[in-house]
């Protein structure tokens, strides 16, 4: 039973060696228990491969792929090997039978217990080399800080248990709780220095920017911040940074967008962050690190209860380099995140504490201290859908297929109701593209619930904020209808009325009937044109040409479901594709400037059409 950390911290060389032995010997029974197995992206078709393959070669050169992941994706795991995971790559294994069968539904804080109870007898983790007999758990102290000591205790009873470390000189050395002695490990493999898996950044669209701007009004100065991963979280971090560093431009954007100033006054604020924020997030993202280095995460906390009480009474009593500004459980992200972490000054590094996920995600075992530290906490997470009672649907579809996992979302949502002044903020895009059709993410019923209705709190779409805490079912349904896309409001309300939750003659006010992408673009386009809102607020791994092509190919993919849609797309490409010279750079990058076959001529036309529809310029 081989336990590997979530995400980045897997000891890939050791894992591949164990897997190779089991694959060669059917008498060996190998179970790998982990979460979020990272795999380099693969192109879904030949046209996408023209864009993706060179990017993949550039970003992942030197990264040792996990052999079990490759075989699992091909449904080719040997019969004597199982891979159990409590968090899957979002949407990446929806149709993989092995992954779906062996998914373990568990809160992040309970995953270590599940692994120990399953009988784990080997743990293998990538670690950062240090000096004087010290190592760093770096990117993944999350479960290891609890599991490794538990294995040491188990071994005292005579049970087999082995702890292996894989040294990677590319891994940033993180101190505080992540700084451990070498003798925690039974053996160390020196793998030299190899590429850390980079997670490419997503573009922050206008809807994402709108969500981020709304959320940035709900964060209180002197408070606590937790965020997730992805474009919506990037948008939140970027909007908070804009509020702090360019308050005039930020105010103009939120006023034009129509933010709820009353709720901002009650829940958050409109001024820069003079007291600063304290970060307490299971995941240390590039956005959070940027806020730390930009002077927003400056409220430092002490792990001594008496000292923390004194800091609350007199923040000015902070002494020198005392205190922690950011607690995190794990990190993963683009290459720039790892570069920045490696280049931290000693003073910066001392203010970041990578620690146990139980320490970050919950209150148990340290409740008095956590309550003192987590003032006015804002726990910000993303959902796929929100149902008509305010429950969040974040990890599983209605048919039971798992998209990702619960992670820490439930813990943070529950904690928001336990802490004085805390709020849970669920972000959800108002619509999605499915099978070439636009569908609403504010639904009356949906998939498996991740955060139940009794923990409903704040929900944010690009069209506004719904404050659901303490509201009746009628008030919740109406508030959600008001932030839904206007194309779906009537159908949603019809279901609410049929269920008896809203009276039959109720009608939304006209002010809530303008929730359309066109209206949103009109409101935010001036800020976009002025350079206030950019697609990649924390930079991009792609060139501008590659960014344009990525958007174009995503546009094609959304409109290529079914033969009718495909036929219409081809007809539009044949009739309306602009001249090739308009997109010479993009076509050269795709090696389609001089198409050599009928297939390539059609591909070129499709790319030209998509580039014109997504607003690319020459």
Decide which structural class fits the backbone. alpha/beta
Number of strand elements: 21
Largest sheet: 8 strands, mixed
Helical region count?
24
Q: Identify the CATH architecture of the largest domain.
A: 3-Layer(aba) Sandwich
Question: How would you describe this structure to a colleague?
Answer:
With 618 residues, the protein is of the alpha/beta class. The protein has three domains: 2-190, Glutaconate Coenzyme A-transferase (3-Layer(aba) Sandwich), CATH 3.40.1080; 206-512, Acetyl-CoA hydrolase/transferase C-terminal domain (Glutaconate Coenzyme A-transferase), CATH 3.40.1080.20; 544-613, no CATH class. 39% of the residues lie in helices and 14% in strands. The protein contains 24 helices and 21 strands. Strands 1, 2, 3, 4, 5, 6, 7 and 8 form an eight-stranded mixed sheet that branches. Helix 7 crosses helix 8 and helix 18 packs antiparallel against helix 19 (489-498). This is Putative acetyl-CoA hydrolase/transferase. InterPro entries: AcetylCoA_hyd_C (IPR026888), AcetylCoA_hyd_C_sf (IPR038460), ActCoA_hydro (IPR046433), NagB/RpiA_transferase-like (IPR037171).
Can you tag this structure with a few keywords?
alpha/beta; Glutaconate Coenzyme A-transferase; 3 domains; 8-stranded mixed sheet; globular
Secondary-structure map with pairings?
Layout lengths: L1 E2 L8 H13 L5 E5 L11 H15 L6 H7 L7 E5 L11 H5 L6 H10 L4 E8 L4 E3 L7 H13 L5 E6 L11 E3 L5 E4 L15 H11 L7 E3 L4 H15 L1 H11 L3 H7 L10 E7 L1 H8 L11 H9 L12 E6 L3 H8 L3 H5 L1 E3 L2 H5 L5 H7 L3 E6 L2 E3 L4 E2 L15 H10 L4 E5 L3 E4 L2 E4 L1 E2 L14 E4 L2 E4 L5 H10 L6 H10 L18 H13 L14 H15 L4 H14 L7 H6 L8 H16 L5
Parallel strand pairs: 1-2, 1-4, 2-3, 4-6, 6-8, 9-10, 9-13, 10-11, 11-12, 13-16, 14-19, 16-20
Antiparallel strand pairs: 4-5, 5-7, 14-15, 17-18, 20-21
Helix pairs in contact: 7-8, 8-9, 8-11, 9-20, 12-16, 18-19, 21-24, 22-24
GO molecular function, one term: hydrolase activity
Keywords: Hydrolase, Transferase
Protein name: Putative acetyl-CoA hydrolase/transferase
């Amino acid at each position: 039973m081989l336990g590997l950390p979530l995400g980045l911290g897997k000891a890939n060389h050791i894992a591949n060696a164990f897997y190779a032995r089991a694959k060669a010997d059917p008498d060996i029974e190998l179970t790998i228990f982990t979460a979020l197995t990272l795999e380099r992206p693969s192109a879904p078709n030949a046209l996408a491969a023209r864009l993706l393959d060179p990017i993949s070669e550039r970003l992942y050169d030197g990264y040792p792929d996990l052999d079990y992941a490759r075989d699992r994706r091909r449904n080719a795991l040997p019969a004597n090997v199982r891979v159990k995971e409590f968090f899957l790559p979002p949407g990446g294994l929806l149709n993989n039978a092995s992954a779906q069968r062996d998914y373990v539904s568990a809160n992040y804080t309970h995953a270590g217990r599940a692994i120990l109870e399953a009988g784990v007898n080997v743990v293998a983790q990538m670690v950062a080399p240090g000096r004087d007999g010290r190592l760093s758990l770096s990117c993944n102290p999350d479960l290891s800080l609890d599991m490794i000591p538990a294995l040491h205790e188990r071994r005292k009873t005579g049970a087999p248990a082995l702890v292996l470390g894989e040294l990677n000189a590319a891994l940033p050395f993180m101190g505080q709780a992540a700084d451990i002695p070498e003798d925690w490990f039974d053996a160390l493999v020196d793998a030299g220095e190899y590429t850390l898996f980079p997670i490419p950044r997503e573009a922050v669209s206008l809807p994402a920017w709108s969500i981020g701007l709304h959320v940035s009004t709900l964060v209180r100065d002197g408070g606590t911040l937790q965020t997730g991963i992805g474009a919506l979280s990037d948008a939140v971090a970027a909007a908070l940074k804009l509020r702090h560093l360019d308050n005039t431009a930020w105010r103009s954007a939120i006023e034009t967008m129509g933010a709820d100033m009353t709720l901002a006054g009650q829940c958050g604020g409109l001024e820069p962050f003079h007291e600063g924020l304290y970060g307490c997030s299971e995941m240390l993202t590039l956005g959070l690190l940027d806020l730390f280095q930009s002077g927003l995460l400056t409220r430092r906390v002490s792990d001594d209860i008496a000292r923390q009480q004194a800091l609350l009474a007199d923040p000015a009593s902070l002494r020198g380099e005392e205190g922690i500004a950011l607690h995190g459980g794990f990190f993963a992200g683009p290459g720039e995140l790892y570069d920045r972490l490696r280049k931290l000054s000693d003073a910066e590094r001392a203010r970041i504490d990578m620690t146990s996920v139980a320490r970050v995600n919950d209150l148990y075992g340290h409740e008095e201290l956590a309550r003192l530290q987590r003032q006015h906490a804002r726990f910000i997470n993303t959902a796929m859908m929100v149902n008509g009672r305010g429950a969040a649907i974040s990890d599983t579809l209605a048919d039971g297929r798992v998209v990702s996992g619960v992670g820490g979302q439930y813990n943070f949502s529950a904690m928001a109701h336990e802490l004085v002044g805390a709020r849970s903020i669920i972000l959800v895009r108002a619509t999605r593209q499915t099978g070439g059709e636009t569908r609403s993410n504010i639904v009356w019923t949906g998939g498996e619930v991740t955060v139940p209705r009794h923990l409903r709190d704040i929900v944010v779409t690009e069209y506004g904020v719904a404050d659901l805490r303490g509201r009746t079912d009628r008030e919740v349904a109406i508030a959600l209808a008001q932030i839904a896309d206007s194309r779906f409001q009537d159908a949603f309300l019809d279901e609410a009325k049929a269920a008896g939750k809203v009276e039959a003659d109720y009608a939304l006010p006209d002010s809530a009937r303008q929730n359309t992408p066109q209206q949103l673009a009109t409101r935010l386009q001036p800020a976009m044109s002025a350079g206030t809102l950019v697609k990649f607020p924390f930079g991009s791994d792609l060139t501008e040409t590659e960014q344009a092509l990525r958007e174009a190919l995503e546009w094609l993919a959304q409109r290529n479901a079914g033969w009718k849609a495909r036929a219409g797309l081809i007809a539009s490409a044949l009739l309306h594709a602009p001249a090739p010279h308009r997109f010479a750079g993009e076509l050269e990058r795709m090696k389609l400037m001089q198409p050599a076959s009928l297939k390539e001529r059609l591909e070129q036309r499709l790319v030209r059409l998509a580039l014109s529809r997504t607003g690319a310029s020459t």
